[in-house]
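Take a minute with the sequence and fold tokens given here and flag any structure token that looks odd. Thanks in advance.
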Amino acid sequence: MLDLSKNERMPTRREALDAILSKWKPAPQSETIPVDEALGRVAARDHVSRHDLPVVRASSMDGVGVDSSLFAKGVPDASAWRAGVEYARADTGDDFDDRFDAVIPIEAVRFPPGGGISFEADLCVTPGMNVRPAGSSVRKGERLVAAGTRLRPFDLSVLVLGGLREAEVIKKPVVAFIPTGSELVPQGSAPARGQTVDSNSALARHMLAEMGAAPLCLPIVRDDPEALRAAIRRARAEADIVLLCGGSSKGGEDFNAEIVAEMGESLFHWIASAPGRPTAAAMLDGAPLINMPGPPPAAYFVMDWCVRALVTRFLGTPETARKTVRALLPDGLDATPGMEILRKLELQKTGDAYEARAMELKAVSVVRALTAPAQLVTDAGPRGREPGERVEIELLR
């Protein structure tokens, strides 16, 4: 285990993730659910069409179906033609009588008051004109969505088009979140002196749902080692990943990281990244056990770079990239050699141009830090960013 107290080099975020992923071998299972409930889920296998559409063939536009052989020598006299005998209405997507093999656009057709039908004089009609063949929309056995696809509304529409009422999807990873600290009070409580509201459970619950996981948010655990051990054991019994929030640093009641190391196979404690340097991780009965710091900006950052990567690994999908833009840094950015730093940004847009100014997280409110419209993570190199330099930033709103 890498620990600052032993003067060992802290791992980068990439090294910390690799330490977890090299030990973790998730074995996700699948479940079958109604297509209407599958939005955002990940397909567990290839799904194929059960039928052809159109079943035989159909008109590709609003018009009339005709026998093209009657037009071989030019436009015929159709003044005595009867609907259903010499021609048939064939609107977009319609099937029509097999006697007719071409569709004339309705714009080229006239229906005189006295009956019959007429066509534009220069009309050219060929076999198969404006007719969609059988299976042109979807073919029986055609792959509709591939395994590993995160299902979007258009994917669900395609599944329905192919005759599927259910989809086989990967079960969501259950991710347990354990908030710790005797100072915490539940959401909706009025904090007294020395207390603070547990907002990290709400943060974790909704970030996990957004990632595609099934959050399991457990009650607050006071600063009691035995209660903490019991909560971890309970969480591991129900979850694929266990998150422990708080008690990871060097405070008088910060013993969570020690318990994490004691209960599992310790991987690291402290990382070369902030906020969230005191993050610790272990493997507990084959599952990742992550101890993140309690300050909300640190909890957010660890959820964003670490937990998000674990959930996507479980689901077998690539991480969804946020929209990025180039932004001018009027004030530049200081370097923090040896540390990757999350910089939350104030953003101003003028026309198509962006200007970004970094917040000092220790100097701004948690509200401003968590609701910032943009962010970037600086590298661990010795060079900062000069005033007036342009950089790529992530948009959060």
User: Anything to note?
Assistant: The domain at 4-29+172-315 is CATH 3.40.980.10 (Molybdenum Cofactor Biosythetic Enzyme; Chain A).
